[in-house]
Amino acid sequence: MSAKTAVSTRVIVRKPMNDHDTMTVEVEDTNETRHLAEYAAPELRQTLAALPSGTTIPVSLSRVGVRSNVWRVEKLHHEPMATTKHAAQTSD
Fold first, then answer.
1. For the chain, where are the alpha helices, taking DSSP H only?
2. Which of 6, 25, 40, 82 is in Cβ range 3.0-4.6 Å of 11 for a Cys bridge?
3. Which fold has domain 7-82?
4. What spatial distance separates the first Cα and last Cα of the chain, rounded to whole Å?
5. What are the DUF7999 domain coordinates in residue numbering (predicted)?
6. Would residue 54 be called left, alpha or beta, if left means φ above 0 and alpha means ψ between -120 and 50 degrees?
């Protein structure tokens, strides 16, 4: 059995955490959809549960199982940042 390796990446919350402790995210660089369903610590799960859709978060993830698109969050690298698609407004 091979060792699981955590990979650092930035993901965007697409569906916030549900009643089954699963959330859907999109990998920022590749547009892959991933389902986060395991968390290294209860505090990490609690922090992620509070995030709304559209929040970008830098995390370390490792795959759960060999044939699924389910991931374990190993670490949150720093505070999540909300992102917006609106251009910055300038004052006249």
1. 42-49
2. 25
3. OB fold (Dihydrolipoamide Acetyltransferase, E2P) (2.40.50)
4. 63
5. 3-80
6. left
Residue type, 67: R
Tens digit of pLDDT per residue, the chain (92 long)? 344 688 899 999 999 999 999 999 999 999 999 999 999 999 999 999 999 999 999 999 999 988 889 999 999 987 555 554 444 444 44
What type of residue sits at position 26? Answer: E
Inter-residue contact 48 to 81 (CB < 8 Å): no
Say which residues have a Cβ less than 8 Å from residue 7's Cβ, sequence separation at least 6: 60, 61, 62
Q: Tens digit of pLDDT for each residue in 66-90?
A: 888 999 999 998 755 555 444 444 4
Domain boundaries, the chain: 7-82
Strands 55-63 and 70-76: antiparallel
